[in-house]
Design goal:
It is a single chain. The chain is α+β, with helices and mostly antiparallel strands. The protein has a domain of 40 residues. The chain is built from one helix and four strands; from the N terminus they run E-E-E-E-H. Strands 1-2-3-4 form a four-stranded antiparallel β-sheet. The radius of gyration is 12 Å and the shape is globular.
Amino acid sequence: MAAWRRCSAGGAENNCAEVANLPGGAKAVRDSKDPARPLRFTASGWAAFRAGVIDGDL
């Protein structure tokens, strides 16, 4: 079972993103209001997603 943790920028309403580490450097991200539908990223996919967020492309 994945160990989910909430983002540090989550609001007081508990509506935020949660992330979990998966084997091989992969990650899973889910909406705390809809935990049954996580997005799964490979390690390289997560790196590309993260870079896009940091660069403001997403």
